[in-house]
């Protein structure tokens, strides 16, 4: 049932407020019969001396009055507060928070908010202290092909250059249908090279394609692909003739001036695509493709304290319930070089606690994990080895025979940090000693039966007074109290070659998250980086052993000494 049928008094109040405000209006009866409320308003702004009548289309959401009416004004003066694509008015800085369901209504928005918007558009060059202090970006309001994107680096185009050619690198596709994915490899103005880009996307986007570009200082208040094409042709008439190429798509980069920050102008990109019709009598299809910046500067802008991660190399031993999530967290945080070591494969029973789902079953964990990371993080360098630590394997690496111990020592020496998520006592003793001899920071992470708790620890060469052996003695002697565990939770499912224990993945994730935090702190600890912790060992409590009930995560922390 529509809100105005369920609460007819609410609609009555809306109409009464419009009448009291002196607004001429008409309810769209067709929409109302279909369960929607649309009111068309005859609006004029007398306070500004404007006697022109503007038809405003006011669309009430089905969730009214919790959220505001959407007002569309195609004939209102254009500006930063009207979407040039559909002419929706931005009346509130944050309508989901500022709209008051108990007191606001359409008439109030027309009385109070709309005159402010029009005044701002009338004096568009003047800054307003009560205006949202964010950059106005028209490119963020256009309608784009879903899934299509072309990456562009931050390049400077000379003021004297208004059009030219470019080379794109695209995904391998045999047709011109979306999604179209690529990046700008080079930009030229006449015979002069404006920019050349080399980056990690070159390895996955390999098809070279010629394209053209045009600079526009402004766009009309109403935009569509056809209007944009018309504006482009005014600057460079040659664009009128499409250059479809082998993929049947003409691509034009559009450079337009807008704001990166409030009232700070920059040039930004989007792309116009004309596709060759499948038959002669059919029209050319026009669409827009958004741009983005796959650059270190853009990615780390949201996480400036993690910038140092991009130059670090981490080795992770153990790609199970804890290790797989540590690896993912590290890579999404900015690690761009990582080595994965594990000797196990994925089974169906791993899925509730492992990172990747059904498609991974039957494959080596390191192979699946590396494939997933490389597909989703193109700038990553990921080495992976199916090695069971402690087994006397002879490996063939680059056509050279080497025993697993010597090879592992080599990998550790090449690392800035080693993370041990194998959760095996002898493995931890072994790895911690190698790291100590090589003066490589070492982090370990384990969970308890039932995933009721866990332990995360670190050893920093020449800083931490103790080591993993110190921890093991303190733990055995009760100086470090153990985390809770669910007694009797060991199981061995059918088809599983070694026992495991019950417990949820989201409980185990608490261990992975803290291991990630302590690892990132080790790699970024500097004046401007992610700061370090003042403890060495953390013991996690997720369940109460007395009641057998889950609790809020609680960490007991300890310092290591001799």
First and last CA, distance: 72 Å
Largest sheet: 8 strands, mixed
Q: How many distinct domains?
A: 3
CATH C-level class of the largest domain: Alpha Beta
How much of the residues is beta strand, in percent? Answer: 25-35%
CATH architecture term of the largest domain: 3-Layer(aba) Sandwich
Helix content: 10-25%
Name of the CATH homologous superfamily of the largest domain? NAD(P)-binding Rossmann-like Domain
Report the total helices. 13
Mean pLDDT: 91
Shape: globular
Structural write-up:
It is a single chain. The protein has 562 residues and is of the alpha/beta class. 24% of the residues lie in helices and 27% in strands. The strands form five sheets. An eight-stranded mixed beta sheet has the order 15-14-13-18-19-20-23-24, with helices on both faces. A seven-stranded mixed beta barrel has the order 5-7-6-9-10-11-12. The chain has a four-stranded antiparallel beta sheet with strand order 1-2-3-4. The termini are far apart. The mean pLDDT is 91.
Keywords, separated by commas or semicolons:
3 domains; alpha/beta; seven-stranded mixed beta barrel; 562 residues; 24 strands; eight-stranded mixed β-sheet; Rossmann fold; 24% helix
